[in-house]
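Severity: low
Component: inverse-folding endpoint
Summary: output formatting inconsistent between runs
Steps to reproduce: submit the following structure tokens with default settings.
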């Protein structure tokens, strides 16, 4: 079966934050958009994330900042606590969507995906699960895509939004290395203690821990384990191991530790980063989100870049006569901002591992301020 559906047709690979945002932003400008997502419907794991100001600003353009704030927990301050349990620093993040709304929001990932997916559905985007791309060829002004189910598409635009290990990036021969930084990060859902009204980060002698509220009743614990090999632990070892790692922290972490003993959805993931130097596009195809630039989670801003990419891509395609020119403009508008964030997140991860937390805090603060600049 072969389909060609006209000049403003887009196939997006990946229904993550970048893919769903790009899909809605394009569809709102009159594009006919289809998404191929390899995972099954509702497969998102239940851990939380923190959406900083630039994410909220980009979501606000799609009319989604308020639904996200309603589904999550709005906050404006990051509190840093040192190895002895003393408060050392408070970062007040810029309120990018107005003084009356919070600077950031903590959310459960499924709640964010639900919000983005409902918007895509409202915009008429078709989402196919269990589907991916097998081959890509530029044919004149169109991209010819062979799908994993044997069907063919001819579209004006192909967007690879398929994450750090992007297959589309590989099919377009836009190669980049994925780096591991000697850190494994933990996330665990726990009840929210009443004092947790912002992000708290605790520096330990070896590791870093913290707490982020994601609703009135729930929060997630995070822990960064330093200087370890990349590995996978059996599920039944996760809670006891996290509990043991949290025992090394004084003060409030002891309370968090007792909550972690009954945690749901405990995950442990490697800190991986990637940055695609040079072009992110070839012909009428482009990669966006983590497929082009994946920062370490220390700046809590990978989602911001992914969501912004979707919005900026649609804007640039709108104001250029050809897809190629629109994609060139998109890449040149995004490169420096994304490079700065990826490089800063790696520098913070390195300082964290070297226990040089006091040098990391101003870097975090300065980078958040830089990210607050217009996109
Ligand atoms: C532990 C951890 C904590 C984090 N915390 C934060 C945080 O608090 N705040 C923040 O802003 N960022 C955070 N990030 C980063 C953030 O999660 C990413 O930057 C963001 O998810 C990138 O979105 P994306 O859509 O580009 O990629 P992804 O979220 O990876 O989505 C890619 C999508 O493509 C699909 N896919 C993959 N391969 C294929 C294929 N071949 N064909 C079709 N579909 C495919 C996947 O199933 C997925 O749905 C964190 C990252 C990690 C690892």
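Observed output (run 2 of 3):
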């Amino acid at each position: 079966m072969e389909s060609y559906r006209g000049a403003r047709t887009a196939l997006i690979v990946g229904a993550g934050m970048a893919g769903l945002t790009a899909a809605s932003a394009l569809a709102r400008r009159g594009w006919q958009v289809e998404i191929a997502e390899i995972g099954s419907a509702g497969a998102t794991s239940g851990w939380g994330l923190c959406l900083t100001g630039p994410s909220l600003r980009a979501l606000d353009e799609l009319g989604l900042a308020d639904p996200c704030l309603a589904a999550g927990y709005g906050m404006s301050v990051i509190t840093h606590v040192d190895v002895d349990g003393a408060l050392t620093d408070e970062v007040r993040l810029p309120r990018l969507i107005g003084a009356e709304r919070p600077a950031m929001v903590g959310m459960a990932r499924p709640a964010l995906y639900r919000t983005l997916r409902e918007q895509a559905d409202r915009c008429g985007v078709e989402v196919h699960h269990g589907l991916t791309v097998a081959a890509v060829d530029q044919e004149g002004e169109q991209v010819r895509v062979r799908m994993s189910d044997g069907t063919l598409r001819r579209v004006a635009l192909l967007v690879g939004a398929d994450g750090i290990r992007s297959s589309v990036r590989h099919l377009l021969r836009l190669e980049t290395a994925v780096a591991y930084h000697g850190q494994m990060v933990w996330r665990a859902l726990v009840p929210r203690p009443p004092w947790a009204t912002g992000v708290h980060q605790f520096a330990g002698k070896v590791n870093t821990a913290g707490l982020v509220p994601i609703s009135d009743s729930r929060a997630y614990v995070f822990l960064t384990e330093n200087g370890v090999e990349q590995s996978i632990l059996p599920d039944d070892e996760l809670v006891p191991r996290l509990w043991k790692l949290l025992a090394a922290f004084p003060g409030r972490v002891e309370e968090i530790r007792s909550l972690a003993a009954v945690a749901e959805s405990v995950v442990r993931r490697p800190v991986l980063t990637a940055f695609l130097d040079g072009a992110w596009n070839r012909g009428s195809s482009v990669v966006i989100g983590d497929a082009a630039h994946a920062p370490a989670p220390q700046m809590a801003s990978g989602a911001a870049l992914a969501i912004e990419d979707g919005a900026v891509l649609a804007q640039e395609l709108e104001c250029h006569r050809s897809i190629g020119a629109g994609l060139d403009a998109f890449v040149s508008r995004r490169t420096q901002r994304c490079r700065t964030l990826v490089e800063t997140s790696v520098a913070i991860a390195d300082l964290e591992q070297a226990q040089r937390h006091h040098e990391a805090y101003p870097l975090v603060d300065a980078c958040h301020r830089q990210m607050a600049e217009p996109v």
